[in-house]
């Protein structure tokens, strides 16, 4: 994908709004107004995501997961989906008619508590690195 100018406001969407979309929000919020949401939100924020973000030198406070249906899309310029399910949801609700939508293929994160903590941290770090590459390949910015 050719590099383009960063939109004024980006919505990052994954399934639970606990890992991928939150990390992307943390990365992009330094450069533009960014929010994140999920299509089937979890009931808690993920503390390991906060650790990964902090370990990468980003001062960002993880918030409670938000449902995409509670987000006002009027001023959103770009929706970035980080899972096939999120992309299909956006299309089924015809949200793509309100603004541009991109699907960034990313690894599915392990579920917190189903793998050892260090394995979870390492997997989240790999996803974080993937997101950095997506940003740098998509926009006219250098994250690292």
Give a written overview of the molecule.
This protein is α/β, with parallel strands linked by helices and 144 residues long. The protein has one domain: 3-Layer(aba) Sandwich (Rossmann fold). Helices cover 34% and strands 14% of the residues. Helix 1 packs across helix 4 and helix 2 crosses helix 4. The two termini are 19 Å apart.
Strand order of the largest sheet: 2-1-3-4
Distance between the termini: 19 Å
- Determine and state the CATH class: Alpha Beta
Number of domain modules: 1
Order of helices and strands: EHEHEHEH
Mean pLDDT, rounded to whole units?
92
What's the CATH topology name? Rossmann fold
Strand content: 5-15%
Q: Helical segment tally?
A: 4
Shape: globular
Radius of gyration, in angstroms, nearest whole number: 14 Å
- What is the total tally of β strands? 4
Main beta sheet strand tally, sense and closure: 4 strands, parallel
* Proportion of residues in helical segments: 25-40%
User: Would you identify the CATH architecture?
Assistant: 3-Layer(aba) Sandwich
Low-confidence stretches: none
The CATH superfamily title: Response regulator
What structural class do the secondary elements suggest?
Answer: alpha/beta
């Amino acid at each position: 994908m050719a590099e383009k100018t960063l939109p004024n406001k980006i919505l990052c969407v994954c399934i639970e709004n606990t890992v991928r979309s939150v990390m992307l929000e943390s990365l992009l919020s330094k450069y533009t107004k960014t929010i994140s949401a999920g299509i089937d939100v979890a009931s808690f924020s993920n503390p390991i995501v906060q650790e990964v973000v902090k370990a990468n030198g980003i001062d960002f406070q993880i918030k409670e997961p938000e449902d995409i249906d509670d987000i006002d899309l009027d001023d959103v310029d770009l929706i970035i989906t980080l899972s096939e399910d999120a992309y299909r949801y956006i299309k089924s609700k015809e949200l793509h008619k309100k603004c541009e939508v991109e699907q960034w293929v990313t690894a599915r994160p392990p579920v917190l508590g189903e793998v050892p903590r260090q394995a979870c941290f390492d997997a989240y770090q790999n996803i974080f690195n993937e997101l950095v590459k997506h940003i740098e390949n998509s926009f006219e910015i250098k994250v690292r």
